[in-house]
Amino acid sequence: xxxxxxxxxxxxxxxxxxxxxxxxxxxxxxxxxxxxxxxxxxxxxxxxxxxxxxxxxxxxxxxxxxxxxxxxxxxxxxxxxxxxxxxxxxxxxxxxxxxxxxxxxxxxxxxxxxxxxxxxxxxxxxxxxxxxxxxxxxxxxxxxxxxxxxxxxxxxxxxxxxxxxxxxxxxxxxxxxxxxxxxxxxxxxxxxxxxxxxxxxxxxxxxxxxxxxxxxxxxxxxxxxxxxxxxxxxxxxxxxxxxxxxxxxxxxxxxxxxxxxxxxxxxxxxxxxxxxxxxxxxxxxxxxxxxxxxxxxxxxxxxxxxxxxxxxxxxxxxxxxxxxxxxxxxxxxxxxxxxxxxxxxxxxxxxxxxxxxxxxxxxxxxxxxxxxxxxxxxxxxxxxxxxxxxxxxxxxxxxxxxxxxx
Length: 406
Hints:
The chain has about 400 residues and is of the alpha/beta class. The chain folds into 4 domains: about 10-70; about 75-130, CATH 2.40.50.140; about 135-320, P-loop containing nucleotide triphosphate hydrolases (Rossmann fold); about 325-405, Helicase, Ruva Protein, domain 3. The chain has helices spanning about 20-70, 105-110, 135-140, 155-170, 175-180, 200-210, 230-240, 265-285, 305-310, 325-335, 345-350, 360-375, 380-395; strands at about 75-85, 85-90, 100, 115-120, 125-130, 140, 190, 210-215, 245-250, 290-295, 315-320. The radius of gyration is 36 Å and the shape is flat.
């Protein structure tokens, strides 16, 4: 425990009666200076004591709050099922016990059927809790729009047009659909081989419309425990409704929407339960306002037909491997910022890359640049592209090994 600082000695004035007036005045001046020094020290000690008092008051206040928290009883989570004249019918989480209990008039004004509440040991409602949203669903939200534009996508002009008609126009020009008297398509399913630009299409739409972009992979909806995947699907659709206008993008949807079988395993049953929740949310999402749904898959043949019927995915857009003109445009996009030698012929390169996807063409440009760096050059030559093409071709023949490590 720190000791209080000692007080400075009080200066005393003893004047010799035989002093001359000048000497007496000089003595008084010296005494006045001593008094000022003592006063300054006392002022410092006072300020230090006041600061210490403030710290102790804050500590006492914190300890009192902690003490109150320790003395207060824990509350249980329940759902307000129904608001009645003589109380509130609640269902406690965990045991599903239903109880008719009391609630204060001020709290009752803020309650609605379906709200989560906190109850004490006597089942009295103590507080209203915020809506429950899965933390994983919150983490999937992207605040800023993706930086992909339509100009970054080559060889998919017709697909871009269809996606814009289905997703972008209802968000930006909803009045046109009302004037014609039709509802906009309910959803878009993009299907095609891997690396053809399905995800880039969804990101470009989100960028052009400047809306909230929520992305999830189908595999993230597959969980071990019963009902967990279905709850995550429900939370994601609720999250989209809270942040509209929004685009909800489900990548690799075949992970939860494969054709149903007679398998009795718990894993298959949970996947099917998650798909049923997805179908239910899509049906309930019919009048969803400024929210659009996009899904993508490279296993179109595996999807359950219930997912493909009109009203759920009204537009099934195939995103194929690019043709020669498309490959030329993709190569132009990915080499736009590269320092190319005069002899590089992108048109001839497009003709030699038959069968490559857009992702593989992007890898081709990167590999060509790496070969130039390996030779300590700042320009990329046609020979670099030829060597990179051989490397990408070898990767096609030995799948599973990343191009960069082949």
